[in-house]
Amino acid sequence: MNIEYALQTDYTYIVEKDRHIHQGMVEPKIKEKEIYILWEGEARIGWMRYGYFWDNMPFMNMIWLEEPYRGHGLGRLVVQHWENEMKQKGFDIVMTSTQSDEQAQHFYRKMGYVDAGALLLDTQPLEVILIKRI
């Protein structure tokens, strides 16, 4: 698997697959190198995108892999790749979140993330906020 910054040529893939981002935000995130594309040979097999909480703390918004590639440690590799990049940029804490009814919370805890709070919205399960010192 290769991890590369998303390019303009990845735009259609991202907007077709990622239903959790406003379409108008995709181009700016590509330009700011805040989306990674995961490749297996010539095929895109997933993505990871992030932003900044309070404009100063890296926050992983989403990691997603095509179904056949899940459960093989690739998610761990892209998270470690991102954490290493954030550390090189001078950050010492990273964040993410997941809904309390999702299995991802267990993945993040195994990766060293700890609960730091929660957000409750009217229409969704509790959103668990997790942080990690890197």
From TrEMBL:
Residues annotated as domain N-acetyltransferase: 1-134
This protein's UniProt keywords: Transferase
InterPro entries recorded: Acyl_CoA_acyltransferase, GNAT_dom
A Pfam family matched in the record: Acetyltransf_1
PROSITE patterns in alphabetical order: GNAT
GO MF annotation list: acyltransferase activity, transferring groups other than amino-acyl groups
Protein name (database record): Acetyltransferase (GNAT) family protein
